[in-house]
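Task: sequence in, structure out. Protein: ascorbate ferrireductase (transmembrane).
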Amino acid sequence: MATGSVVPLLFLARISGLLVAVLVSIWAISFRSSFHHHSSESSPQEDQGITYSVLHPLFMVIGFILISGEAILIHRWLPGSRSLKKSVHLCLQGVALASGIFGIWTKFHGQKGIVANFYSLHSWMGLICILLFGAQWLVGFLSFWHRGEGRTVRQRVLPWHIFLGLYTYGLAVATAETGLLEKLTFLQTKRNMSKRCPESMVVNSLGLGLAFLSGIVILAAVSPKYQPPQQLWATATQLLPRDE
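Result:
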């Protein structure tokens, strides 16, 4: 059970995650026309393209970033055995991975192919992030179902698994930030959108929300685990020198 100083961090993570979900939903639903590059009259094919373009930020932010962040925090608040926590963590990360893959597919669907869309820093970072995340999930899946490895091997791998997990999560947030900047720059230069219009305010607020959320999630993940006073006293007495 989450106790001590971690509780405020978990609360802030949930509030900021909810804010991010609301902002990306408002942006995707209320400003649908911004996700389509053509200005001609709409056709069924164009309407379908808009739908897939709108699904991209929803699945990448809500499905990939928010769910993977919740999976990171599972060990901080979920009661029960370590096996239960690992299984829930693995399932949530699997949902996040599926959402990320589908989100990338929606971006390329109906366009000129992957190569034509693979040109920006945002796309390069996104591909690297998905590959790292998939490799992390595969390693976690294999280690969960095959526990015959020695204890020392698992202890050596665990710090790297935690580091790569937090690194990939931070990379996902950074990739989302570059995507927001790329889209906002396109709208302001190609469509002469005002820099202080409601859509610009929503996108900038979404970027700030993601930056705040990632900091809270990572801080909660690396914060020392809470120990009750009795356990702290027992640990301290064990460290005291003993008379021979």
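The radius of gyration is 22 Å.
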